[in-house]
Amino acid sequence: MEAPDFEVVSPPTDGISSLAFSPQAEILAAASWDAAVRLYEVQPSGNTIPKASYNHEGPVLCVDWSKDGNNVVSGGTDKAARMYNIATGQTTQVAAHDEAIKSVKFLDGQSNILATGSWDKTIKYWDTRSPTPVGTVQLPERVYAMDTKNDLLVAATADRHVLIFNLNNPTTIFKQTISPLKWQTRTISCFIDGKGYAIGSIEGRVGIQYIDEKEIAKCFSFKCHRDDTKNVYSVNSISFHPGYGTFATAGADGTISFWDKDSKQRLKSLAKQNNTIACTAFNRNGSIFAYGASYDWTKGHKFYANEGQINKILLHAVKDEDCKPRAKK
């Protein structure tokens, strides 16, 4: 029998919207609908110690770390991005939009540059030392998901638009396309080499998309997060393993699967949770996989009222058999 996954102590008191590990230490940041961001230190034993927390003025929708591990940035429905300094415990506002901020991402190779994607149909770039944006891009619709790796930034919006940016020219849309999936986009995540992205929809599908025209033939989509009785569930999160480049999908069916896009096979599934999985994250070397089990509102208010709310963050000790690519069949 496998050892059970570790449960994080003192979890958020409402839905868990986003998880991110420090790139420099075993510290996990969790954003929640209870308007707080919490930091947990993960010990080698798997036990966790609540380290710090700070608040927004409304539900927090996203969280990310600076590359040096000194700062956490989060965005929320209070239309602000706030930065928490680990050393000083101080929080400062570093970005503002006209509507909720759905995604915050520090750019690779730029120590203080932050990208924020909002429901106000813009992406803004900020130098965290300055109160005004260093660049703004108008988008066709509200940002639902955004990710960046190396020189690539991808944003998925309402109406299934996908906007691709080359960060050498960050305020110009490099390519505008429509999601390969027929239904609303829920999540998007860049390959670890920055050559493409995986996109997930509310209709239990994932699309694997390459940027370079020469690799378009390698693009494909597949079904996942469905059950034997043909129920279809949202793909809520896609996280790539930082070493192997394989990836995990998590769904509203309470399941998590690890996949290898290159051999097009499922590597492993984790035990089903009795709640939807809202968000996931690997730590810096891929040895820990964190996932947030909390209601994602896919069944509306009534279900929440009847079923009650469980909010848990679990830590899975990753083994090679979970994520290591296998020889192609």
UniProtKB/TrEMBL annotation:
<feature type="repeat" description="WD">
    <location>
        <begin position="9"/>
        <end position="43"/>
    </location>
</feature>
<feature type="repeat" description="WD">
    <location>
        <begin position="235"/>
        <end position="269"/>
    </location>
</feature>
<dbReference type="Pfam" id="PF00400">
    <property type="entry name" value="WD40"/>
</dbReference>
<dbReference type="InterPro" id="IPR001680">
    <property type="entry name" value="WD40_rpt"/>
</dbReference>
<feature type="repeat" description="WD">
    <location>
        <begin position="53"/>
        <end position="94"/>
    </location>
</feature>
<dbReference type="InterPro" id="IPR020472">
    <property type="entry name" value="WD40_PAC1"/>
</dbReference>
<feature type="repeat" description="WD">
    <location>
        <begin position="94"/>
        <end position="136"/>
    </location>
</feature>
<dbReference type="InterPro" id="IPR015943">
    <property type="entry name" value="WD40/YVTN_repeat-like_dom_sf"/>
</dbReference>
<comment type="similarity">
    <text>Belongs to the WD repeat rae1 family.</text>
</comment>
<keyword id="KW-0677">Repeat</keyword>
<dbReference type="InterPro" id="IPR036322">
    <property type="entry name" value="WD40_repeat_dom_sf"/>
</dbReference>
<protein>
    <recommendedName>
        <fullName>Poly(A)+ RNA export protein</fullName>
    </recommendedName>
</protein>
<keyword id="KW-0853">WD repeat</keyword>
